Amino acid sequence: MNQKNKCHRCSKEYRVDEWDLNFLKKISPKLDNEVHSIDSPKLCFDCRMTTLMAWRNERNLHPLACSCCGKDIISVFSKENNYKVLCSECFWSDKVDPHLSSTTYDKKKSFFDQFDVLLHNAKLLTLYAANNENCEYVNQESDDNNCYLCIGGYGNQDCYHCTYSLASRKCIDCLGITDSENLYECTMCFSCYNCQHLYNCTNCRDCYFCEDCVGCENCFGSINLRYKKYYFFNEQLDKKEYKRKVAEYLGSREGIVAAKSKFAEHRLDFVFKYSFRFFCDESCDGDILIQCKDVQNTYYSAGAQNTKNSYIINQIKDVLDGLAVGRGELVYYSGSSISLFGSAFCSSCYTLRNSYYCFMCYNSNDLFGCVGLNHKQYCIFNKQYTKQEYEKEVARIISEMRKKSEWGEFFPIGMSPFGYNESMAMEYYPKDRQEIKKIKANWREEDIQKINSNIYKPKDISQYHIDNNEDAESEIDKCINGILKCEESGRPFRIISRELAQYIERNIQLPRLHPNLRHRDRLGKLCKIKLYHRKCMNEGPSFAGTTDGRCTNEFETTYAPERPEKVYCESCYQKEII
After folding, report:
1. Which of 11, 142, 290, 370 could make an SS bond with 154 (beta carbons 3.0 to 4.6 A apart)?
2. Which residues contact 189 (CB under 8 A, 6 or more apart)?
3. Which residues of the chain have pLDDT under 70?
4. Predicted TM-score of the model (pTM)
């Protein structure tokens, strides 16, 4: 049975199929021996994903004072919203009793309005970060050491400005890398070493400006290579000639810019596989999938099974509408959480079971409409109940929410603690101020610091090497104590000493753009979170008998029809790579 619905926000038509309806039955809570069914969503996939992303602020950090001890902290929450934000020491201690913010549900009022009051009164954790050492400015990260401004990863060491980086070391300005070392400006790379400007590469070493290469060493500006050495723009060279040509580009900032430009043109002479899937079964559809099974419309995910309409999920089973969730089972319409089990409508939570409508709750079971709780059970709006009381009261609340068309919907986008333009939503679904106002989301005025003094203009990296410049130590001091100005936006940023040390050691030119703009450029390499039904573009004499002289295979791909790349099916693609 399929339902054809019209999105309540954008008016676009979308379908809810039998898979969705069966999933909603499984996730619907059973209370007091009665199942309280969750109805199909009122928003289309894009609008649901936009809402989840609007509740996730990754990289816009603000100075605050801890609401408990008064210590200066850095937080994802801005000062003007008047939330009670605590430093990690105070949040995890018993200094603040979370039940002090509790309230009793009033059926005359909107559930979401009452939750918003609780959101402003309950304690919030300044940044979501755990088990990190010497990593003051990381967010959504765990088990890191000596990292700076890294987002959404774990197990990293000496990494800077990386997003979704896992178990990597000494990497800078990377997106979606795993088990790698000494990478710079690399995107979607796995088990690579000492490489720069790579996209979608695996097991590569000492490579530059390459895409879709596997097991390569000393390759530059090349596409679709397998286990090759000394390839320069897809041409085989001897070692001496290769080193000479590479040195012409890597010796200066101008050479790097020229290499980027040449590679952008060169890559369009090659073909691209319709989807990146690694050890996945044939039932999967989406893109950038590793060891997945039975996933639909799912992207950038590893170890996922039986999922649909999800983005950035890891080692998880039975998920519908998930954003950045991992290590759990049976999760619906939730984001930015780890270890959810049988839970729905949650954001920024860790290890929850049988819980609904929670924000920043941890290590708890059977919560409904709670904020900032840890090691709790049978709580509603942060108020403690017995098991019997809890089930009866939650059943009553669901009945009232259904009457107000609230049950089964995620928190309103306008109730997010973050401005739309400072959230993840702005990166994937960009909108101007009027469009944001139209969907009733928040806009936050950027408080860009004006800088008139101590502005530092980066020099060529050779000027920071003592062997090349007798004033190198002085230049290093000026750099780490000065403020750099983004060449595009004018926004100020800094380079810290540990970061600069890596640039010098690895002979990497200093960045001229603000970290957020550098992330924007890396994100721009990815296709949109959307599938297009297309036909293989391979053509030639072997397809002379077909209608348009092309391969007849069709597929779902994230490559939009208007993009310039030549997109091939699996079999045609495999014949092209070398």
Report:
1. 142
2. 174, 176, 177, 178, 180, 183, 195, 198, 199, 200, 201, 202, 204
3. 1, 447-452, 544-545
4. 0.93
